[in-house]
Amino acid sequence: MLSIVLLLISISAGFLGSLLGLGGGIIVVPVLTLFFGIDIRYAVAASLISIIATSSGAAASFIKDHLTNIRLAVLLELGTVAGAITGFLISSGINSSWLFLLFGGFLFFSAIMMFRKKGDARSEIDHPWSQKLKLAGSYPNEKGEMTFYKVAQVPLGLISMYFAGILSALLGIGSGIFKVMAMDGAMKLPMKVSSATSNFMIGVTASASAGAYLMKGDIRPEIASPVALGIIVGSWIGAKVMTRMRADRIRKIFVIVLVIVSIQMIIKGLKS
Amino acid sequence: MNEIENLELKISKFLRYGVIFAGIVIFIGWISMFKFTNTFYTFKFYDKLPLIDIIPFYVYRERWGMLVAYAGLVILISLPIIRVFLTAFLFIKQKEYILATIAIVVSIALIFSMFLGIEL
To answer: Which among A46, A96, A157, B80 could disulfide-bond with A204, CB atoms 3.0 to 4.6 Å apart, if both were Cys?
Structure first.
């Protein structure tokens, strides 16, 4: 049964996703389109469902670790939700081949970003909006001491979130990589805070377009059910074993896989 | 942990159980409709069919498994919307009116986005 195969692949996607700090969408969409031959619009819609599941499921543990900046998340959700609605609206006007090209390009970019590691660049200045909304915060470092941080370039962060929202709706991804880049790069937040806050937000971004896709009829239970169930189970297993596994080697293998898949997606986009 | 984080934690825990609940509903639906599904062949090409046309069709054909799976998916999608809405209440409680307004705007936008799907 192909549904069982899809369930098993989704479990692996959820497992790998939580191990590498990615959403399952980056794996699920290429599998559904390239392997199962499903139209990319159904694949994108099914993938959005699994993003909601992983984000909502993991939020509690990140908040407990004091890593999530809830105040900042609420503000930035304004940008991502507006972007997700825009993405949904333009999705009808974009044909499948463009979606394949965009997804392929995004995967290629993600692969490069996964190789890039850099230290935190902390901001000395707190942006006026951040002062007004008290967005600056603190989190415990490895030694258990509280590290304080300020928030820079809030408007730029908000604009970046808008574009991350568009990509999320178009490609069925959490666009966590872009969210982290905006928070870490533009707003100068510590990496751990960026990752936790991004994870907190991706569920809201995904639900904005998932609701619309559901009403439009693009979310089909035959595809979305095994994907959602697989991702829930897989990411749960991934979170359990995460502390016991070294992700470095898996990351390197995964980067190669991403590059290959991205090229395949681009070729499919060019052919169709 | 400050008060708002504590309350957020409670909401997030509630959401975690919400995901498990939605997962169980989806699972029941998926298992029940299993015999109807054989391949993904029908999804090879995109067919524009809105939900308001799909649901009466499945009710008429008495495909309850499919309807249960849809219910599970609806629960899952509504979880983040509930989260944002509850966050707005938390900010009101803390007299943080700007952030409360932002959270209310976001939750209204989320509900509004669903209706966008109906018109298209």
So the answer is: B80
**Residue B108: count of CB within 10 angstroms of its CB:** 15
Question: Would the CB atoms of A39 and B39 count as touching at under 8 Å?
Answer: no
Question: CA nearest B100 in A: which residue?
Answer: A74
Q: Are A174 and A51 in contact (CB under 8 A)?
A: yes
Domain boundaries, chain A: 2-271
Would you tell me which residues 57-96 of chain B have a C-beta closer than 8 angstroms to some C-beta of chain A? Answer: 66, 69-70, 72-74, 76-81, 83-84, 87, 91, 96
Tens digit of each residue's pLDDT (9 = 90 or more) over B72-102? 999 999 999 998 998 898 889 888 899 999 9
**Chain A residue at shortest CA distance from B23:** A229
Residue A188: which H helix or E strand, with range?
none
Which pair of tokens denotes residue A162?
Answer: 């808008």
- HSE (side-chain half, CA atoms, 13 Å) at A156: 12
pLDDT for A21 equals 66
In a domain, B103, yes or no: yes
**Nearest-angstrom CA–CA distance, A155 and A133:** 13
Instruction: For residue B73, list chain A residues with Cβ-Cβ distance below 8 A.
Output: 49, 214, 219, 221, 224-225, 228
Q: Do A71 and B48 touch (CB under 8 A)?
A: no
ipTM value: 0.89
Residue B42 domain-assigned? no
Check if the beta carbon of residue A199 is closer than 8 Å to that of residue A179: no
Q: What are phi and psi of A147, to 5 degrees?
A: -105, 125
Q: What is the 8-class DSSP label of residue A153?
A: -
User: Total structural domains in chain B?
Assistant: 1
In chain B, what residues touch A213 (CB-CB under 8 Å)? Answer: 117
